[in-house]
Each structure stands twice: as structure tokens, then as C-alpha cells.
């Protein structure tokens, strides 16, 4: 990457890390979508870099809150991730060669839908979902993680409906995202797709991600939850629409 492109990438890392810390997800969507919309790097390359950066963000975010994790939800969702991530990676590899425009269009629609999800306030279920639903939600997350390095949206839809304290929902979601990223990195490592360029750019992004995460924890925005949702919604919609319009 050129120096200007690296600075733009680091800016997206900072914004995404801050938003993820206060909302529970967004870092991968902001970085992958922003980098792709600006034409800085291919989706496959960016998704691998984001995997390392986002994993650091997750580890820092849950370091002091790991006792809030719902282990049952986490392990069953992680099983779904493990089963389907490989399918997402295969689709990414195939479309990166044969259907780049379609891949970017799908990314745009996924980001647009994810932005809309942020504005939805789902009614809680009367009881916690069964193991099968956790597995299915993890599977959909694994599919999107494999394709775009951004598997958060299905987990947001699923977990935000659970009749649990917000601290449990948020920390459990971050823990699942962390396991999702470890699985993705492991599979890409075995396939030989983690190159020196990816590691070098990740090394630059990780400190910025840590700073953004700590800033989100120490300096939460002086705005209501609704206002922050609207900001994230607007940002994600702008990124999604730019990708859709650019590929139609």
C-alpha cells in the first residue's frame, strides 16, 4: 500500500475499533467495507488483515469482563462457526477470481443490512433459545466471516433477542467473534494465505486498534444509545451504498 492508503486504513481501524467497543460489533464491517469502497485493497487481503486486528480488539475488550460470558451460548455458536467458515472461505476464493464485482456487491448489501439491524430494537424472547438456534446463528456468522471477515450481524440478530443482561449479551458476542476470528485465521494459515504483507499491515493496525478500544472503554460518547446507533447506521449505510452503486 502507498503511505496515503495506509493512513486511510489506520483511520478506518481506529473508527471501527471504537464503534465495536461501544456497540459490540462493527470493526470488520467498517474496515473491510471502507477499504473496498476506497479501492485500497482486494476483499480477500483486507479480510485477513482485519481478522488479526479485530481479534486484538476483542481480546482487549473482554479482558476484564470474561466472567460475563455465557459459556453454553458461546460453545454452541462456535461449533456452528467451525462447521461453516470453510464454505465462506471457499466462496471468497472462487468469487475473488471469477466474480469480483458480484463479491463487492454482496459485501455492499451485507453492510447495508447490518446497518439496518443496528436500528432495530428486537423484543426479547420469553426464554433463552435452544442449542440448535445458537448453532445456526454461529453457522451464518461463520459463513460471513469466511467470505468477508465480518461475521457479527447474524450474532447480533440472535443474541440481542435473548432475555439476558446486556453485559452478558455483549461480552458473549465478543467472545464468539474472537473464536470466529481464531478459526478463520487458522484455516487461512493452513491454506497458506497469510502472507508477509498481511502480517506487516496487521502489525501496524493492531496498536491503533488497541488505542481505539481503550478509548471506547474509557471515553464512551456523551450521547444516547439511540444517537450512537444512528451514527453507526449512517456510516455503514454510506459504505454499503457506495459499494452497491459502484458495482451496478
Description:
Helix content is 79%, strand content 0%. It is mostly helical and 248 residues long. Helix 4 (71-98) packs across helix 8 (166-190) and helix 7 (152-159) runs antiparallel to helix 8.
Q: What structural keywords apply?
A:
single chain, about 250 residues, mainly alpha, 10 helices, about 0% strand
Task: List segments where confidence is low: pLDDT < 50 over at least 5 consecutive residues.
Answer: none
Main sheet summary = none
Please state the structural category.
Answer: mainly alpha
Number of strands: 0
Domain module tally: 1
Shape: globular
The percentage of residues in β strands lies in under 5%
Order of H and E elements: HHHHHHHHHH
Gyration radius, rounded: 17 Å
Mean pLDDT across all residues, rounded? 86
Total of DSSP H or I helical runs spanning 4+ residues: 10
Approximate helicity band? over 70%
Could you tell me how far the N terminus lies from the C terminus, measured between alpha carbons in angstroms? 26 Å
In short:
The protein has helices at residues 3-23, 27-37, 43-62, 71-98, 100-118, 131-148, 152-159, 166-190, 196-218, 225-247. It is mostly helical.
Task: Itemize the secondary structure elements and their pairings.
Elements: H1 3-23, H2 27-37, H3 43-62, H4 71-98, H5 100-118, H6 131-148, H7 152-159, H8 166-190, H9 196-218, H10 225-247
